[in-house]
Amino acid sequence: MSNLVHLWAIFLGTVIGLLPIINPLAAAPTFLAITEGHSEARRREQARKGCLYMVAILVSFLIGGSFIMAFFGISIPGLRIAGGIMLAGIGMSMLTAHRNTASDNEEHEAARQKQDISFSPLAMPMLSGPGSIAVTLGFTSLAQDWVDYVAIIAGIVVVALFTYVTLRVSGRIVRFVGPVGVNAMTKIMGFLIMAIGVQFVVNGVLGIATDPELLRSIKAALTA
């Protein structure tokens, strides 16, 4: 009985821990903006693939994340800085995007249909960014055997299903917003994404600057 309660606690903890970080409700407007011009079927495909990639990324870090990060010498602040630079670049491109003229509209539409945003930026870093990866890595300390890992993976899958349903429903908003509204949303979300990216970089730098080992090294150097 106690083992069942432990598994249930790990499962709920994973769902409750990941949902605020991934925040699919906040990701829905951004998803609409970066899939502007896509058909409903294409947007549905991108959402499904993005959620599958998200599960694959988080499960990969859950199983081998600590080893991978230690092997390559990657820290959580380093992940935040890298993800922040990527997000800032995406936001800047959305802010500076210009409407195409009617003469090349057909070519633009074909190019957008070929564009695949399911892995980047949707799955990485929007859904499975540094925050959700850090939360997933944190749950490895609670896992005692393989059953606990199954419970954590089940929690990740539930969050991915909720995210997929949210992104699916968000596509219906396009019919009410219209092209002008989507263009305005693209600019607004581009600014917000760029701001989030900059904040990721700031948090990463602060994480490095407040690292206890670094502070001890500085203190030792000053007192030497």
Q: Which consecutive residue ranges, at least 5 long each, have pLDDT under 50?
A: 107-114
Q: How many distinct beta strands?
A: 0
Radius of gyration: 20 Å
Order of helices and strands: HHHHHHHHHH
| SS strand fraction | under 5%
Class from helix and strand fractions: mainly alpha
The major pleated sheet works out as: none
What gross morphology would you assign? flat
N-to-C terminal Cα separation, in Å? 56 Å
Average pLDDT rating = 78
The helix content, as a percent range, equals: over 70%
Give a structural overview:
The protein contains 10 helices and no strands. It has 224 residues and is mainly α. It has one domain (2-223). Helix 1 runs parallel beside helix 8 (146-170), helix 4 crosses helix 6 and helix 4 packs antiparallel against helix 9. The termini are far apart.
Write the layout of secondary structure elements.
Layout: H1 2-22, H2 24-34, H3 40-72, H4 76-95, H5 105-114, H6 118-127, H7 130-139, H8 146-170, H9 173-209, H10 212-223
Helix pairs in contact: 1-7, 1-8, 2-8, 2-9, 3-6, 3-7, 3-8, 4-6, 4-9
